[in-house]
């Protein structure tokens, strides 16, 4: 085992995306992650397809690409926690773990004796992280929470989509389950902080992370725009509420993004476009004036940008340090020379499934780098291994548990 967290064992009772995203990050950083799944069913995302992973003969397997996105560097075991024997095994594993991660409904694990209070009595050093839709308190605490629902309730969709009055206007969710991903990142940060605290005090602690809290926190500048003015920001499509020009523009063969962040960049753009006088126009000379007069400026710029192809604009503007770029589909993303240079696409070998495609971690550590030790596991692939190596169970006992339907 290598990595900054190679001394840490994570017992992962979570499924779908937010929890598995967090445990995958911990696994990438070297932690031993034991993923507990329901016998015969497993994590819901195993069946969230198509697309499904293809085997070496080109036929679909029963593992969805969705599952593969968040479950590398883990060992999968199957346990029936509805049975007392399964609960006892999870308690034993928790007693030998540093972190427990779960995303059951509020109070959902208490009926099994697997809540924080019960497990803290067994292992006071345990860091226990709960991820829920709405948190452990408040009037919505018992509701189920899903990313799409939270993007709407938490305000993100009110900021995303074309503005009213435009064809196709209306609220729009982000194309990735971003609230889940951000919640996984916040949960990871909280777990790491709790582990540092434990190094100082010897004590574990309970972590309460909710999708709604995370979504509200990640409204960022838009939240402060509202808190400062009392006015709810409106949808602007790809435009920026506080910077102009900062949006997509048509070109001779498609679209490009201009992300001009200051007045000097705007002046250089106007000069390159052969319209230097625009930067001297008092309506457009400063960013504040450009924001106030965006309705006049943007149509002028769109008439300019359609005169060249995207690649020609990108070459010319990059040479003058003016932020711009193409709008890639995912084929373009993974063909991009910078993405290739950073080795963001990789594959991991699996003895039963062949090479499994993966997207690399963006974390680059010089002294304790991320490692890719295990491909996403098949359901229950490591049950015997974990019960034998971690809990010391005999092969006879493991076989007895299988016959009883506990594992």
TrEMBL record:
<dbReference type="InterPro" id="IPR003673">
    <property type="entry name" value="CoA-Trfase_fam_III"/>
</dbReference>
<protein>
    <submittedName>
        <fullName>L-carnitine dehydratase/bile acid-inducible protein F</fullName>
    </submittedName>
</protein>
<dbReference type="GO" id="GO:0008410">
    <property type="term" value="F:CoA-transferase activity"/>
</dbReference>
<dbReference type="Pfam" id="PF02515">
    <property type="entry name" value="CoA_transf_3"/>
</dbReference>
<keyword id="KW-0808">Transferase</keyword>
<dbReference type="InterPro" id="IPR023606">
    <property type="entry name" value="CoA-Trfase_III_dom_1_sf"/>
</dbReference>
<dbReference type="InterPro" id="IPR050483">
    <property type="entry name" value="CoA-transferase_III_domain"/>
</dbReference>
<dbReference type="InterPro" id="IPR044855">
    <property type="entry name" value="CoA-Trfase_III_dom3_sf"/>
</dbReference>
């Amino acid at each position: 085992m290598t990595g900054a967290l190679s001394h840490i064992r994570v017992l992962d009772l979570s499924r779908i995306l937010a929890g598995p995203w967090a445990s995958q990050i911990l696994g990438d950083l070297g932690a031993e992650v034991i993923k507990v799944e329901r016998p015969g069913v497993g994590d819901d995302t195993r069946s969230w397809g198509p697309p499904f992973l293809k085997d070496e003969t080109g036929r679909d397997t029963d593992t969805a690409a969705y599952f593969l996105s968040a479950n590398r560097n883990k060992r999968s075991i199957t346990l029936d926690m509805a049975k007392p024997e399964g609960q006892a095994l999870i308690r034993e594993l928790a007693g030998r773990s540093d972190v427990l991660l779960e995303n059951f409904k509020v109070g959902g694990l208490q009926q099994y004796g697997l809540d924080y209070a019960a497990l803290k009595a067994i292992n006071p050093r345990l860091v226990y992280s709960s991820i829920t839709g709405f948190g452990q308190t408040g009037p919505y605490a018992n509701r189920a929470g899903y990313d799409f629902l939270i993007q709407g309730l938490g305000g993100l969709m009110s900021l995303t989509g074309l503005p009213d009055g435009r064809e196709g206007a209306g609220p729009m969710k982000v194309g990735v389950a971003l609230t889940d991903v951000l919640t996984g990142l916040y949960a990871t940060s909280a777990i790491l902080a709790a582990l540092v605290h434990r190094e100082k005090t010897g004590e574990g602690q309970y972590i309460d992370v909710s999708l709604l809290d995370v979504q509200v926190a990640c409204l960022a500048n838009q939240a402060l725009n509202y808190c400062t003015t009392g006015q709810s920001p409106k949808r602007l499509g790809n435009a920026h509420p506080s910077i102009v020009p900062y949006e997509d523009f048509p070109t001779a063969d498609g679209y490009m993004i201009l992300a001009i962040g200051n007045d000097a960049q705007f002046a250089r753009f106007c000069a390159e476009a052969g319209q230097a006088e625009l930067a001297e126009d008092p309506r457009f000379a400063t960013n504040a004036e450009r924001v106030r007069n965006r309705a006049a400026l943007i149509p002028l710029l769109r008439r300019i940008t359609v005169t060249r192809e995207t690649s020609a604009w990108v070459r010319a503007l990059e040479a003058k340090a003016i932020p711009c770029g193409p709008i890639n589909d995912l084929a373009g993303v993974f063909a991009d020379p910078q993405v290739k240079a950073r080795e963001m696409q990789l594959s991991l070998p699996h003895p039963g499934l062949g090479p499994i495609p993966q997207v690399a971690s963006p974390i680059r550590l010089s002294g304790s780098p991320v490692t890719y030790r295990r491909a996403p596991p098949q359901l229950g692939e490591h049950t015997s291994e974990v019960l034998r190596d971690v809990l010391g169970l005999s092969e006879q006992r493991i076989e007895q548990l299988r016959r009883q339907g506990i594992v």
